[in-house]
Amino acid sequence: MRILHVASEATGLVKTGGLADVAAGLARAQRDAGDDVRLLMPAYRGCAELADATVRHPLGDPLGGGPTRLLEGRLPGTDVPVWLVDAPTLYDRDGGPYLDPHGNDYPDNPLRFALLGRVAAMLSTAGPALGWAPEVVHAHDWQASIAPATLHWWGGVRPGTVTTVHNLKFQGRFSPEVVSQVGLPAAAYALEGAEAYGTFSFLKAGLFYSDRITTVSPTYAEEIQSETGGEGLHGLLRSRSNRLHGLLNGIDEGAWDPRSDSDLHAAFGPRSLGPRAANKRALQRHFGLDEERGVPLVGLVSRLSDQKGIDLLLAAIPQLLRSPLQLVVLGSGDPLLEEALRDLARQHPTRVGVNIGYDEALSHQVFAGSDLFVVPSRFEPCGLTQMYAMRYGALPVVRNTGGLADTVTDVSAGGCGFTFEAVDADALREAMHRALEVYADGDRWTRLQLQAMQRSFGWGNAAGGYRDVYSAAIADASST
Ligand code: ADP
Ligand code: GLC
Questions:
Q1: Residue 451 three-state SS
Q2: Residue whose CA is closest, atom 1 of ligand 2?
Q3: Max Cα separation, the chain?
């Protein structure tokens, strides 16, 4: 199948969160399964060099944002072809993919991401000129949602379209006037269209106009159809529930393998767990903690935002620290949470280590060196870190929501994790206490670690699910 993924980030080129791992991992898995996959992304500063890209095609100035070209390269470390939308006035900037160096949204984000979607639509119809056209366009999150909307309005023969919701909280909502700037007709700004509560919503455009919708876990697919989880779009999602599919994310088991991970201090695996201890020691040393072998070490790698329930951990930790326990945190985001974590580390310098920042290699070391890994999210569409943690032998303590519920089973039900229900510090503390009790039983702990490490989280299952959804989308497209 000829598949065009449209995404605003992909591991190897630029990553701010799980979307990048999923866009790259899914594309790679589909390519390995024999599909003809390409990934379309903006050419942010430095991406063309990383992808070793060359100019493929001039695209004119599609939305008036400046001269635009299509570059072609490869996703680093893979054989997945990448097409980069090269519009230097929009993408060649200091800062990240969405935010300037001061942490503010770029004011022209509507134009920046409309162009991404617009070019996806152009490639879909300019096939003969390029020698390749997709049978299905797979748009990820709001940043890609103009692709299915544009293809809908252009009409005629077109590929099937699929929009994946990685996080319904981020919808890309702007003032109504952007409708013309993003290249859609005024009629697209309507209740039956991209209008949402008096704003133009990129994501609603994707959800409304795509042939099929997917999200990244079965439980989240249910949650977003309820008023509490629907972020204002539950009505639309419910009305399209026969087009909505919850497909659990996989992880790239090649990139995330403690037997061959070059970021680790010592390689280990289910058959050789012994060297894992060296990773714990190295992690303790890195963070300046007491290098005690027997003290349980809790890890956290996360964006620091309301979604992730960091405040619950902050509320639970003082009492937990009355027992032997260490905590290491790697994350960045909300300045108030960053400061509260730094404070905690200052109060307990030998027991709590905090690194405010983004560090891919260190994240691997946290998964490999922690005993427990905590994910206390208020909501979690899928979540990848709990899967990385299990694969690296750190047992997860998670709130029972979204994809966390679909990937972590409590030890009391035969699983290898610890789950809690209520969004409060007591519930988290209770789960942590249960985990610490089990930790005290070394043999049982080792058995649970092995169980966790041997679980299969690859893309195999989901890749089959996507294939079915794509076939349905293609059939839908040809019947409209
Ligand atoms: P989300 O996409 O909501 O942030 P996920 O669990 O799906 O949550 O994905 C987060 C990804 O980002 C994981 O690969 C995680 O290891 C990584 N990550 C998050 N924060 C950091 C950080 N500070 N340093 C390195 N990697 C991080
Ligand atoms: C989003 C979600 C996260 C999910 C990731 C990849 O960032 O917050 O739960 O794992 O997308 O789908």
A1: helix
A2: 166
A3: 68
Condensed to tens digits (0 to 9), the pLDDT of residues 455-476 reads 999 998 898 999 999 999 999 9
Ligand 2 mutation target, pool 21, 140, 167, 231, most atoms within 8 A of CB: 167
Distance 214 CA to ligand 2 centre (A): 13
Asked if CATH classification 3.40.605.10 holds for the domain at 2-251+460-478, the reply, yes or no, is no
Secondary structure string (H, E, C) spanning 46-89:
CHHHHCCCEEEEEEECCCCCCCEEEEEEECCCCCCEEEEEECHH
pLDDT digits (tens, 9 = 90+) for 33-56: 999 999 999 999 999 999 999 998
Q: With a 6 A CB cut-off, is 25 part of the ligand 2 pocket?
A: no
**Of the listed ranges 64-73, 363-372, 456-465, the one predicted with least confidence:** 456-465
Query: Per-residue pLDDT tens for 223-244?
Result: 999 999 999 999 999 999 999 9
Q: If you average pLDDT over residues 87-95, what whole number do you get?
A: 97
Give residue limits of the domains in the chain: 2-251+460-478, 276-453
CA-wise closest residue to 105 among 95, 118, 116 = 95
Spatial contact of 122 and 1, defined as CB atoms under 8 Å apart: no
Distance CA 40, CA 421 (A): 39
Q: 307-321 pLDDT, tens per residue?
A: 999 999 999 999 999
Mutate to test the pocket of ligand 1, among 256, 286, 301, 310 (most ligand atoms within 8 A of CB): 301
Question: Looking at domain 276-453, does it have CATH number 3.40.50.720?
Answer: no
User: Do the Cβ atoms of 138 and 4 come closer than 8 Å?
Assistant: yes
Ligand 2 neighbourhood includes 365 CB (under 6 angstroms) = no
Domains 2-251+460-478 and 276-453 alike in fold? yes
Is 458 within 8 Å of 250 (Cβ atoms)?
Answer: yes
